[in-house]
Amino acid sequence: MDVQEKIRQQVTENRVVLYMKGTPDAPQCGFSAAAVQILEACGAEEVATVNVLADPEIRQGIKDFSSWPTVPQLYVNGEFVGGADIMREMYQNGELHKLLK
After folding, report:
1. Span 14-18, mean pLDDT?
2. Strand pairing class (22-23; 26-27)
3. Are 34 and 88 contacting, i.e. CB atoms less than 8 angstroms apart?
4. Per residue in 75-93, is it b (16+ CB within 10 Å) or e — as a string?
5. Measured between alpha carbons, how far is 54 from 98 in angstroms, rounded to an integer?
6. 47 near 16, Cβ under 8 Å?
7. What is the pLDDT of residue 14?
8. Most buried of 2, 12, 56, 61 (most Cβ within 10 A)?
9. Which stretches within 14-94 are classed as H helix?
């Protein structure tokens, strides 16, 4: 399975997927930490996380998959939502909470 197929499988088999640097318990960048905090504040359950630092192919592959140059990246119901800034904006206006419920 190539990296694009692997990513497609991850985002379709899990309702909520966060590609991040590090893990939820030990984020390796401030944006990833913020993304985790936002999801927790929304009460998101069963969030699959993928540590892009553990797999260089995924780290580059997710950027190609979404045509988005940075990590973290959030997917809900197989659709790309955005990075930390978009998540923060959607959290503040209530859109993210609705999307995750």
Report:
1. 97
2. antiparallel
3. yes
4. bbeeebbbbbebbbebbee
5. 31
6. yes
7. 97
8. 61
9. 30-41, 56-66, 84-92
- Any residues with CB less than 8 A from the CB of 21 and at least 6 apart, and which? 27, 28, 29, 31, 32, 51, 52, 53, 71, 72
Contacts of 101 (CB under 8 A, 6+ apart): none
Angle at 90 between CA 65 and CA 43, to 5 degrees: 95
Cα–Cα distance measured from residue 51 to residue 73, given in angstroms and rounded to the nearest whole number: 11
What's the token pair of residue 65? 């998959």
Q: Which domains does the chain have, with CATH numbers?
A: 3-100 (3.40.30.10)
| pLDDT tens string 30-66 | 999 999 999 999 999 899 999 999 999 999 999 999 9
pTM, two decimals, is 0.96
Any bridge partners for residue 2, and if so which?
A: none
